[in-house]
Please model this.
Amino acid sequence: MIKAVIFDFYGVLSHDKFYGEAFAQKHQELYKWIQNNIFADEEILYKWMRNEINSDNINKIIAQGTGHQENFLCEVLNESLRNIKLDDKMLGLAKKLKTEHGKKIGLVTDNMDGFSSLVARQHDLHGLFDTVVNSADHGYLKAEREGELFDKALDILNEEIESCVFIDDSLENVEMFKRKGGQGFLYVNNFEELNNFLNNNL
Model:
């Protein structure tokens, strides 16, 4: 029986990205530069998610590449973070698991410093989830160190991994959780399949 459900953020609880659609419409050329030079560069992206570089460093890189002022870049990044929306169905599912089924719920995400400083606060994720673990706060990703980020979440949830399920849109991360002894569900907008899986295992 499942006692705790751990969610990923991007691709599961939300489908909005940093520098999202509203930003892209307002700043098309800047958006293209960021996509091509920041998000297409895995080395920079993973360093950002490990907090080896932070948002200020990212703004410096963008400023050097585009000529925009760092203060302006900070403002538009923060605005894009405040505009990130949650998936209503997934949010409703998380609330239902906690309030109606009495399950513990957690969130483990590979994310940047802005997630903890703005996104989590904007949506009161710490109020909803029993634990929120962000890679940037710890310095390594979910698939690194034999999935140690999951161990941190499980310690706070006070549950054994065998009684937990992890929902992620990354097969690599789902398989990591399963190798550690938990149940994993690969989420690719297959909400009804996920709902049925949980109902059959609660």
About this structure: The chain has two domains: 4-15+85-201, 21-82. Residues 4-15+85-201 form a domain with the Rossmann fold fold (CATH 3.40.50.1000). The longest strand covers residues 104-109. The chain has a mean pLDDT of 96.
